[in-house]
Design brief:
The chain is built from two helices and nine strands. The protein is an alpha+beta fold. It has a six-stranded mixed β-sheet, with helices on both faces.
Length: 149
């Protein structure tokens, strides 16, 4: 798989029915190893190991209902009171982070109303803080550490 702009970690890759799978430490099971999943696993490990995000407060593939359709957030970080705090959207490394990606995560946020939105393709990472009073958001220089959220 492609080298990313994220720290390496001890990946657990196996084969199942002739296809590669990777162990997801959040879902605690092997999942199909797609380019997007490669990014997700690197990013989740980065958040846990380097930004001190508690794995117990993260969930992958969170289903939500939006205008009578079911959508899935790639990763959601929760506060200790279990309210959604951050939505993280992943794209494969060859997918450009465009306005449509931000539109997608913003639609998810219409339901969850989180404080932080993060988008990554493994090479570029963007984090913004939502200001509901001004109906705006500001891009942050870096992904914040968990204790500073």
């Amino acid at each position: 798989m492609l080298s990313l702009n994220l720290p390496v970690f001890d990946t657990k890759i196996a084969s199942s029915n002739g296809k590669n799978v990777i162990f997801d430490i959040i879902r605690k099971r092997y999942v199909a190893l797609t380019p997007e999943e490669w990014v997700r696993q690197h990013f989740v490990h980065f958040l846990i190991a380097y930004k001190k995000y508690p794995a117990s407060l993260m969930a992958n593939e969170v289903e939500l209902k939006l205008n009578d359709t079911k959508k899935r957030c790639d990763t959601v970080l929760y506060s200790r009171d279990l309210s959604a705090r951050m939505i993280i959207e992943y794209k494969a490394p060859h997918i450009e982070i465009s306005q449509s990606v931000f539109d997608q995560i913003t639609r998810y946020n219409m339901v969850l109303k989180v404080e932080y939105l993060v988008v990554s393709n493994g090479l570029q990472h963007y984090c913004c803080k939502v200001n509901y009073e001004n109906q705006s958001y500001i891009f942050l220089e870096d992904i914040p550490n968990y204790n500073s959220l």
